[in-house]
Amino acid sequence: MNSELEPPAFASAIPFTDRDAMVAGRRRASISSYRAIYRMSTRTILASVAIICLLNTRARAGSESANTLPAGALKSSPSMYLRGASSSAIRWQAWSPQTLALAQSLNRPILIDIGAVWCHWCHVMDETTYADPEVAAALNSEFVPVKVDADERPDIDGYYQNAAAQLTGAGGWPLTCFTTPDGALFFAAGYLPPRPGSGPNGSGEANSSMAPLLKRISQVYAADRAGLEREAEATAEKLRSTSSPDAPAHGGLKGLRAQILAGLAASYDREWGGFASGSGPRFYDFPAIELALAHGFYGHPEFTAMALDTLKRIAAGGVFDQLGGGFHRYSTDDHWLVPHFEKLGYDNAMALHAYSDAYEASGDPEFARVSKLIVGYVNRELLDPKMRAFYSHQDADSFKGDDGSYYTWTVEEVKRALRPDEARVAILFYGMEDATARAPDGRIVLRRAMSPEQVAARLKIPVEEARRTIARASDAMLAARARRKTPQVDRAVMTDRNALMADAYLTASAALDDDGLRRTALSDLDFILGHMRAPDGSFFHVWSDGRGRVAGLAADQVYLLGAIVDAYQFSTDEKYLVEARKLAAIILKNFRADGSSLLMNRETEDASTVIEQSPASGQVFYDMPTPSVQATMAIATAELALVTGDASYTKAADELMASAPAMAGSMLSNSVATVGLRLEYRADGGAIVAVVGPHTDARAAALWKTALASYRPGKIVTRIGSDRGAAKAMPAAVQAMFASSAEKGVPLAFVCAGTACATPVGTPAKLAAVIRRFGVQGNDKTTIANDRPALARPPM
Question: What integer is the mean pLDDT of 355-371?
Answer without folding.
Answer: 98
